[in-house]
Amino acid sequence: MKGARWLVTAVPLAWLGVFFLLPFLVVVAMSVAPPAAPGHSPLPAPSGLLREWATNGLDWRNYAALFRDSLYFDAYLNSLLFAGVSTFACLLLGYPIAYGIARARPAQRAMLLMLVVLPFWTSSLLRNYALIGILKGNGLLNQVLMGLGLVDSPVEILHTDLAVYIGIVYGYLPFMVLPLAASLMRLDFTLLEAAADLGARPLEAFWRVTWPLSRPGVVAGSLLVFVPALGEFVIPDLLGGPRALTIGRVIWTEFFSNRDWARAAAVAVGALVVVAVPLLLFERRGGRKEAAT
Amino acid sequence: MSAARRPWPLLAAMAVGYAFLYIPLVCVVAYSFNASRLVTVWGGFSTKWYGALFANQPILDAAQRSFAIAAAAATVSVFIGTLTALALSQLPPPRGRGLLSLLVAAPLVMPEVILGLSALLLFVGMQQAVGWPAGRGMLTIGIAHVTLCACYATVVVRARLSQLDPSLTEAAMDLGARPLSVFMRVTLPLIAPALVAAWLLAFTLSLDDLVVASFTSGPGSSTLPMLIYSKVKLGVTPEMNALATIVIGVVVAFVGLAYWLLFQRGGAASQDSVATNVRPGAGSK
């Protein structure tokens, strides 16, 4: 039976090794490969690549380009900004929903949770398409704004940064609400009554009791929104303007339009560093919090 | 009780949140029955866009392809995800567990664009080196989807495994059952609901994926999201409203059924189980 036990680990390890770890190493190798000559296969043969490295050393030109051309720096910065602001907006919008769910009666609670999750199961692409219909020049939002007399002529919302923020919040709100609701449901609401008995006003009780106790949910929800939003391609591409460059869009363009695979690989490795740094910071902070409690 | 517990600003904020989530969906459904091609003008009730959708052979072909890939990828993902979850919860820890837990977590935080790019570089490299896979198509999309979806399946199955009472499997072992039969007769029935949930999650993720599929597809193997993407890029097309409405309808039916099975038919029992997850004091008063 030792064999079967070993297989349980070996099968997934083999699959992920071949189809995840190996390709990842190929990307890293590709990022220090010389750019392909026009007309040649964009992927160099391993033997030729090894010979190239043996004679000329690793080729750092792809990384040098990341620093030379401000386009890449802007893309990294834009991605961080889009993801960061959207995460905060998700928290602002999601917290009251999660709080309301946690304080609902159990039967109601299941229904409210289901309604938060339901949009996630539909296609994200079609949901972005639905947003386009609302945000565009003669869409519902502009009709409402004009009907209310707030603006005289349609405001341009689609293909602006605002549309990207709306899109990310719309797409990722369920990922914020679920962990928040889970941590708020575990909260003992008699603590708030105790705080009130001791003379705390509702806002003070919230700030000093509810908020600190819900922080694990806040951290989990923020991570679940921030990390995928960083690498998001579809939302900035469909809703944002041509200048709403993000990591995802740059890699996509380098690959599909410029067909510069080595450059795309270098951008990808740079992107992983950008993703990994906030993750590690989150984890260290989370670890210290847990140690403190 | 809820009126006192939930002041009106909270209820208003909740209403805004739910409205934000649902107004776009409601609009799409409404527009799909609009006779006018112009989305902003109501030209009367019509189902002609559904007719146009079902007469669109490329969309039907792509949908069929996407369903086949998603079903296959979800099945393999659940198999690999279950093995991974078992390996990660086995005691004593098997050799290679550290590497496995790293490899299964990394795709969850890695941008899809990079997953797609790296999978494609691998497939092209393998084709040059060993001649397999010959070209790209449904097989390569499926393999790339399994790699991503298996990690999500692992999370779902692992969560369920961690809730199991270890004394159940210990008891079976004490009674002389061998590990495989313990798994088939004790563990598997207990984690079956999680396997269904993991399969549905993997299926949805695969069916919905644009980015990884775009990198790993070949000529003539466009999936439904790839087709939708190219159509949406060109502008708003009314057939897409009809397609979105069908998707929303199917999801509402499925989620509604699941909700009914879990919370209505089971009645008081399952509601109690919800209530017991909450500390005393949070309940009714």
Features:
heterodimer; A: 293 residues; mainly alpha; MetI-like fold; B: 285 residues; 13 helices; globular; disordered C terminus
How would you characterize this protein structure?
- The two termini of chain A are 43 Å apart.
- Chain A has a single domain (69-292), classed as MetI-like (MetI-like fold), CATH 1.10.3720.10.
- The radius of gyration of chain A is 24 Å and the shape is globular.
- Chain A has helices at 2-31, 46-56, 61-68, 70-102, 106-121, 124-135, 140-147, 161-185, 190-197, 202-213, 215-230, 234-239, 247-256, 261-292.
- Chain A has 293 residues and is mainly alpha-helical.
- With 285 residues, chain B is mainly α.
- Chain B folds into two domains: 1-32 and 238-285, no CATH class; 60-236, MetI-like (MetI-like fold).
- In chain B, 77% of the residues lie in helices and 0% in strands.
- The longest helix of chain B has 33 residues, at 57-89.
- Chain B is globular and about 70 Å long.
- Chains A and B meet through α1, α4, α5, α6 and α8 of A and α2, α4, α5, α6 and α7 of B.
The chain-level structural class of chain B is mainly alpha
Q: Count of helices of chain B? A: 13
Total strand count of chain B, please? 0
Which sequence of SSEs, written as H and E, runs from N to C of chain B? HHHHHHHHHHHHH
In terms of DSSP E residues, the strand content of chain A is: under 5%
Mean pLDDT of chain A: 87
Radius of gyration of chain B: 24 Å
Q: Remind me, CATH topology of chain A? A: MetI-like fold
> Which topology of the largest domain in chain B does CATH recognise?
MetI-like fold
Tell me about the largest β-sheet of chain A. Answer: none
Question: Any idea what the CATH architecture of chain A is?
Answer: Orthogonal Bundle
Kindly report the greatest chain-chain contact and the residue count on each side. A-B, 100 and 99 residues
- In whole angstroms, how far apart are the ends of chain B? 7 Å
Strand residue percentage of chain B = under 5%
Radius of gyration of chain A: 24 Å
Just give the CATH class of chain A: Mainly Alpha
The structural domain count of chain A equals 1
Helix content of chain B: over 70%
Q: Unreliable segments of chain A (pLDDT under 50, ≥5 consecutive)?
A: none
The CATH H-level superfamily of chain A is MetI-like
Quaternary structure: heterodimer
